[in-house]
Design a protein that fits this description.
Elements: H1 3-67, H2 77-89, E1 93-100, E2 103-107, E3 125-126, E4 132-137, E5 147-152, E6 155-159, E7 173-179, E8 183-189, H3 196-200, E9 205-209, E10 212-219, E11 222-229, H4 230-266, H5 269-279, E12 282-291, E13 297-307, E14 313-314, H6 316-326, H7 329-350, E15 355-360, H8 362-367, H9 369-378, E16 388-393, H10 400-412, E17 417-422, H11 429-433, E18 439-442, H12 444-447, H13 459-469, E19 473-476, H14 482-490, E20 495-496, H15 507-520, H16 539-542
Parallel strand pairs: 13-15, 15-16, 16-17, 17-18, 18-19, 19-20
Antiparallel strand pairs: 1-2, 1-6, 3-4, 4-5, 5-6, 7-8, 7-11, 9-10, 10-11, 12-13, 12-20, 13-14
Helix pairs in contact: 1-4, 7-9
GO molecular function: cyclic-guanylate-specific phosphodiesterase activity
Membrane topology: Multi-pass membrane protein
Domain EAL: 266-518
């Protein structure tokens, strides 16, 4: 799959996720918010139940203990009146009784127990200060639900279980209370499924069981749980989602726009080029340079080619300018240097007269960075500096002071320097005199006018004259016809390159071409014609 197709596929997936994820996230957040709020509400109910239970138990204990010190004759009118007064004034106590030798002798209502005589209930729990608690105690005077019997000494107080959970509940809430050590004491409220209340007392904190929301609290010897049916929570959740859903939709729209913007940037030519540089999708082709006097190949210009993963070649005029504008030309130049040294090392070592020319970017001409790059690449390669030419364009040498310094340093290191594409910039003698050059390359746009009668065709003669006056080697670019080659040779041009001789070649084909010219060397200045293009692309577009 090509990089573009991968980006398109990624965009489709990312757009779908960006549209759905915020909405789903808001739905989830709304559920979490409602669940959190519901558990906090239930925890407050459980805390209230414990507070109520502790208050009822403490009040009952105090009432029982207040009777013990009283010097009242057991079951006398005064004694019964005192028990009755405590029962009436207490919010928790329903009845009180007095026992002698474990047998009920009188109650808070009368002294005649008659057939209601009963033994004191066996306690299931005793506090540290001697208060005993018994379960399922029947009323002393009437039929009804069994109560808790809280006993201290000879006195017993009967308390309805619901007194321990006597808090105001909202609809649907169920509460359950247990005394740590002897189990459930009371529960009431909305209906719950069998076993849910018991399960609620087994844990602490937030619990969700069989569709019920539960909050359980344990404190001061009591454990209380508040329970609500999940259907009630879902109703609340629906109301919350009315607020969260629009936020999710707005976030989704924003994320979709961001994804589309990012994907558009990644599909831009610059992003495509950046990825290609990162993945090193570039190769080097070599444009043979022919000595006009002998027809021998004496070198080549290293030209960068972008080969996509599918094998297609991107034309240089589509990416070189973008690389220069974006600064990517620097890592591309480094790639060319490393590739030339790696691919051409053996051939250059065998023929010390052979050279490879490398194009130098304007920024490198200004800073001189390329000199260190080339020096490191050549270290240990046994390639001589004079075998690596550097070519700078007129545009790259606009800052003459900086360019002159870089050119001078390069020549001191042994490199030959050529001014590329001459004729497209300043193109005057004063300009050339300010730059320490070894060779001048005539731009192919002027070579193409030879024999056409165009008004600019005479310019090439002036360029040749200028170069000769400065004793520079002359290289003509873009030579495509025998007429052009003859014209240039007649006027003393030293070297030429172009599709008349060969298209830019991969390294194996260039080496074969170079060897072929060596075999023919000595037969005279016959034009050597190499492999001709199979592509329909114009030579002007690819010879760059």
């Amino acid at each position: 799959m090509s990089n573009k197709n991968r980006i398109v596929a990624w965009t489709i997936v990312a757009t779908a996720v960006a549209a759905i994820a915020p909405v789903a996230a808001m739905m989830w957040l709304s559920r979490q918010a409602v669940a959190q709020a519901e558990h906090e509400r239930l925890a407050r109910y459980a805390e209230s139940v414990i507070a109520r239970a502790a208050h009822s138990f403490d009040e009952t204990q105090r009432s029982l203990k207040s009777l013990s010190p009283l010097l009242l004759l057991p079951c006398s009118d005064e004694h019964i009146a005192q028990m009755r007064l405590i029962s009436v004034n207490s919010r928790s106590i329903e009845e009180m009784g007095y026992y002698e030798h474990g047998q009920l002798k009188c109650t808070s209502w009368d002294s005649s127990v008659g057939a209601r005589r009963r033994r004191q209930a066996e306690p299931v729990f005793t506090t540290a200060d001697g208060v005993e608690v018994a379960l399922d105690q029947r009323s002393f005077v009437a039929d009804g639900p069994t109560m808790l019997s809280i006993q201290y000494g000879a006195h017993s107080a009967l308390v309805h279980r619901l007194r321990f959970v006597d808090v105001v509940l909202e609809k649907g809430v169920h509460v359950v209370l247990a005394r740590n050590g002897f189990g459930p004491v009371a529960q009431y409220g909305g209906p719950v499924a069998a076993g849910v209340a018991e399960h609620a007392l087994d844990g602490l904190g937030r619990q969700d069981v069989d569709g019920f929301f539960i909050s359980t609290v344990s404190r001061d010897g009591w454990t209380a749980a508040a329970i609500v049916d999940g259907d009630h929570v879902l109703e609340e959740m629906t109301g919350q989602q009315r607020w969260f859903l629009p936020v999710g939709i707005l976030l989704g729209i924003g994320l979709v726009m961001l994804v589309l913007r990012v994907s558009q940037a990644r599909l831009s030519p610059l992003a495509d080029l950046q990825l290609a540089v990162k993945k090193k999708e570039f190769i080097v082709h070599y444009q043979p340079i022919i000595e006009m006097a002998s027809g021998r190949c004496i070198g080549a210009e290293a030209l960068l080619r972008w080969r996509r993963p599918d094998g297609s070649i991107v034309r240089p005029d589509f990416f070189i300018a973008l690389a220069e504008e974006s600064g990517l030309i620097l890592p591309l130049t480094d790639l060319v240097v490393d590739t030339v040294v790696r691919e051409m090392r053996d051939t250059l070592r065998q023929d010390r007269a052979l050279h490879i020319a490398i194009n130098v970017a304007a920024q490198d001409m200004k800073t001189g960075r390329i000199l260190e790059v080339v020096s490191q690449a050549l270290a240990g390669s046994d390639i001589r500096p004079e075998q690596l030419w550097m070519e700078a364009t007129e545009r790259g040498c606009m800052d003459i002071a900086s360019a002159s310094l870089t050119l001078a340093r390069a020549r001191e290191m042994g490199h030959s320097m050529a001014l590329d594409d001459f004729g497209t910039g300043y193109s005057n003698l004063q300009y050339l005199q300010g730059l320490p050059m070894d060779a001048l390359k005539i731009d192919k746009s002027f070579v193409s006018t030879i024999g056409t009668g165009a008004a600019t065709s005479a310019v090439i003669d002036h360029i040749i004259a200028m170069a000769k006056s400065l004793k520079l080697y002359i290289v003509a670019e873009g030579v495509e016809t025998l007429e052009q080659a003859a014209y240039l040779a007649e006027r003393g041009v030293d070297f030429a390159q172009g599709w008349l001789f060969s298209r830019p070649l991969p390294v194996e084909e260039f080496v074969a071409f170079y060897c072929a010219t060596l075999a023919d060397y000595g037969s005279g200045p016959e034009i050597i014609r190499g492999p001709q293009p199979a592509s329909t692309d114009s030579p002007a577009a690819l010879d760059a």
